Amino acid sequence: MNNDDKRRLLDVLHRTAGMTANQRLIVMLYAMHPTDRAGAVIETATDLAKLVGMSPTVFSRTRRQVIEAGWLEETERLAHISYYRLSAKSTGEDTVVPLRRAT
């Protein structure tokens, strides 16, 4: 992990300061976990829950809260499994191009 990666993770940790511990844990898990080219974490909720010591039910409920708050977004769905990535709110990246006046 290089200094840019560490700085990015610290930025995410700082942005999540007002969240519950479980919510922050889930956002940080998605920030730290390996992703595909689209930024999605290709791991099931059951496996991620085991990784952080949560029951699958608590993990899914808390992840749903994080999604509703705009910290994660769904990238794709294969059969009944959804995959998620950090949203612009988490990363601090502005993905919207500002409009400019036509002249």
CATH-defined architecture of the domain at 20-91: Orthogonal Bundle
CATH fold field value of the domain at 20-91: Arc Repressor Mutant, subunit A
Number of strands: 2
SSE ordering: HHHHEEH
Specify the biggest β-sheet. Answer: 2 strands, antiparallel
Beta-strand fraction estimate: 5-15%
Structural class: alpha+beta
Distance between the termini: 47 Å
User: What spatial form do the alpha-carbon principal axes imply?
Assistant: globular
Tell me the strand order in the biggest sheet. Answer: 1-2
Low-confidence stretches: none
Mean pLDDT: 86
- Total of DSSP H or I helical runs spanning 4+ residues: 5
What's the CATH first level of the domain at 20-91? Mainly Alpha
Helix content: 40-55%
Radius of gyration: 15 Å
CATH superfamily of the domain at 20-91: Winged helix-like DNA-binding domain superfamily/Winged helix DNA-binding domain
Description of the molecule:
- With 103 residues, this protein is α+β, with helices and mostly antiparallel strands.
- It has a domain of 72 residues: Arc Repressor Mutant, subunit A.
- 49% of the residues lie in helices and 13% in strands.
- Helix 2 crosses helix 4.
- It is globular, with a radius of gyration of 15 Å.
- The model has no long low-confidence stretch (mean pLDDT 86).
